[in-house]
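Next comes the chain:
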Amino acid sequence: PARFDMASLIKEMETLRLGTKSTRHSIIEKLQDRGFIEGNPVRPTPLGKGLIKAVLTVDSKISEPDMTAELEKEMDLISQGSTTKDSVVSESRDMLGRVMESLEKAESVLKEKIKLSLNEGTIIGVCPDHGTDIKVIKNREYIKIKCLTEGCRIEFTSKIMGLIKETDKKCEICGLPLINIIRRGQSPELRCIDKDCSYNKEKNTMGKCPKEEGNMVIRQSRYGKRFLGCSNYPKCTNTYALPQKGTVKFTGEYCTICNSPLIMGFIATRRWKFCPDIKCEYNRRKDKAGKKQTSAIA
């Protein structure tokens, strides 16, 4: 069967009475943020697969949609005056207590199944040195990219956040595979699997920091938001927000007012130059000039 996309997943949750109209989106977002699912259509990550396998081994209703649906039904009865809040809370506590007891009894089995699934990883390419598979192993905090041949130089740890897709391209600098990083709301980012490769550094460097001798580089927050940060962090904590959609490139120019690097943004056919310091007068002047030009044309 075809995988669920976001729209069909929310519709299925509605059919199964999982969550409410106002909470279904946030439930999916939490599953994404915690590394259980990724992409659209939605795919379970190795962590998500491990959790599913683990939960199915427990003698409990926790894996069945009926449990949540029953709670939602009882809450509706409270609003209709057919039952009381205290009665529903008491019943829910008893049920969740039984679930917790089942989980605690199976703790060691749960840990082992999740650990095994995490170590399975996903193949993202072939090692140029040994011809063996390169796998990416993800958890909530970081990813490990590793060749299956013991002792191979390909073993990198990084904090890449997003869906990792295999490509057929090789890095022109080091010859290692290039991968696509897909994040919500952002254009796919093509990068070398070696996080320290100059291919990545050159693409992500957006000029010099106006406050320190370091470079302003594109970074990703733990919540998947990109921003500019100084390479001399934590000595320098200078940061700038970046547009979350489209692509950005350093123009090679610097703002004449605050000396920050000027950035070019691209979304479809639209392109615009801006200073990353949103409070800078450069952006205000540019907006005014654009409005005057529009008025003159009109």
Notes: The chain is about 35% helix and 25% strand.
